[in-house]
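This section describes the prediction task in plain terms. A model, or a person checking by hand, is given the sequence of a single protein chain and must write out its three-dimensional structure as a string of tokens. No templates, partner chains or ligands are provided. The sample shown here is typical of the held-out split.
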Amino acid sequence: MYSLFSLADRKNWNFTVCGLSGWPWYYAIHFLLDLVVNICIAYKCQVPDADEGQLHARTGLPLVSLLEISKIQSDGYLYFSDGILKLQLLSLPGMTPLFVSFEGLERRAKDSLFQQSLIKAVGIGKGKRPSILDGTGGLGSDGFLMASTGCKVSLFERDKVIYELLKDGLRRYAAKDSNGKEVSKRIQIENRDFLESKTLTNRYEVVYLDPMFPMSKKRSRSKRPMLYLQEFLQAENNGDQMLSVAKRIATKRIVVKRGIRSPTLTNHDVDIVYRGNSNRFDIYLI
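The expected answer:
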């Protein structure tokens, strides 16, 4: 695995996170959401510093001395290292820490960005920069690419641990240079469950969803440790509810990312489909 950051593989559009080289990001994210349930914040000094204290205040996660981690029951811990917020999992030995970095996506953001299926699917084109809500923000890669075109993108991420990692990644990218600052300004993130957005007053031209979808038989037979994780990973089964909420918010289209051979999110007819090598984008016009 490449160390510690989300990285888009241009060949198969997989993320590299958490030591899971070649895994699609939705498996890595849901691995964290479904398997990791007991997280604390580790501090290295005798007492927590300001950043650690503020993280505790925002998340409610317990503060534990790094020296005491082995003595408590915990699936993992958040910690700061060289100014970067990282998540170390203890559930699987040998797994490297996770942190969010957008530097690995910069090349993809510059390399024929407007020819990519994601960008076409959400309706970005010459003179067209729709407002976009990414209801399943995850580690923010697709939101980052959409914002790199000049669009304003709102991201909802329901899990507070993933949200904090994403927010930290955006903070660091904004401080990188003037371009990083401009792209980051176009991304707004909220620790919020998309399915609880029925009362959302803001409307967006596009709602983008990337829910987890079932693993293909081909991937399940691979040498990666997928068979082990299948007992923890469950596909989203609330497609009708997701589409219903999206219809209340979107004014032009809903875009749903799926595996190339995955079933549609719901039984509703899809209006347009953009296909890539391993993914496709189902479009529902409003």
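For orientation: The domain at 103-285 is CATH 3.40.50.150 (Rossmann fold).
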